[in-house]
Write a structure and sequence with these properties.
single chain; alpha+beta; 4-stranded antiparallel sheet; 3 helices; 12 strands
Length: 212
């Protein structure tokens, strides 16, 4: 038995059908970006050599509804207010004792920024953390097996021997370019509510297409 797709009865009908198809396609694309997958462009060199300036990534916005973020994930998130301009640490805002020399920021400012950052999770809520030669020391264990990073280079941010504890529900991020990354060392861990999603693939430029 042969089936034939009926043709529109008029040019006007064909035009209406085209408009409906385009509108549905646009709506579907917007829904996917809003709820499932969204593209982002890398704005700085803080994640080199993993991600270069101008490289584009795809971010899964739904994945953390299924499981908790974990150490090693590369995530896009909103940093705390002040991170994009002054690297402000939250303990100063709360009027608590200022952080000591040799200590990472233990708490963010209370409000999130409208900016978006991309970093790698190196510690989660409940973990203790210090930094040695750019490597995170989590619960007393130094993570030296990090082939994806650029060495820290010896600045004060490379060695933060005084231990902090990550609050429950918070995540501590560091850039892979350890000596050139403005990250949680300066403005503290961030809550899950500020995380947008996990970067899982690169799609531009063509010679860097792949998974993360």
């Amino acid at each position: 038995m042969n089936f034939r797709i009926p043709k529109p009865k008029s040019k006007a009908g064909g035009l209406i059908e085209l408009v409906v198809i385009v509108a549905l396609a646009l709506g579907l694309a917007l829904a996917i970006q809003a709820w499932v997958v969204k593209p982002y462009q890398i704005p700085s060199g803080s994640m080199e050599p993993t991600l270069d300036v101008g490289q584009r990534v795809l971010v899964n916005r739904f994945i953390y509804h299924l499981h908790e973020p974990k150490i090693g994930d590369i995530i896009v998130f909103h940093p705390p207010a002040g991170a994009e301009s002054s690297s402000e640490c939250g303990v100063l805002v709360h009027g608590e004792q200022p952080i000591e020399s040799g200590m990472a920021c233990p708490r963010p400012t209370p409000e999130q920024s409208g900016q978006t950052f991309i970093k790698r999770i190196v510690a989660v809520g409940g973990d203790t953390l210090s930094v040695k030669e750019g490597h995170p020391v989590v619960n007393g264990v130094e993570k030296t097996d990090e082939p994806y990073i650029n060495p820290c280079g010896g600045g004060y941010e490379c060695n933060l021997p005084k231990t902090i504890k990550i609050p429950p529900g918070y995540f501590f991020m560091m850039g892979d370019n350890r000596g050139e990354s403005d990250d949680s060392r300066y403005w503290g861990p961030v809550p899950k509510a500020w995380i947008i999603g996990e970067a899982f693939a690169t799609y531009w430029p063509p010679d860097r297409i792949g998974t993360l």
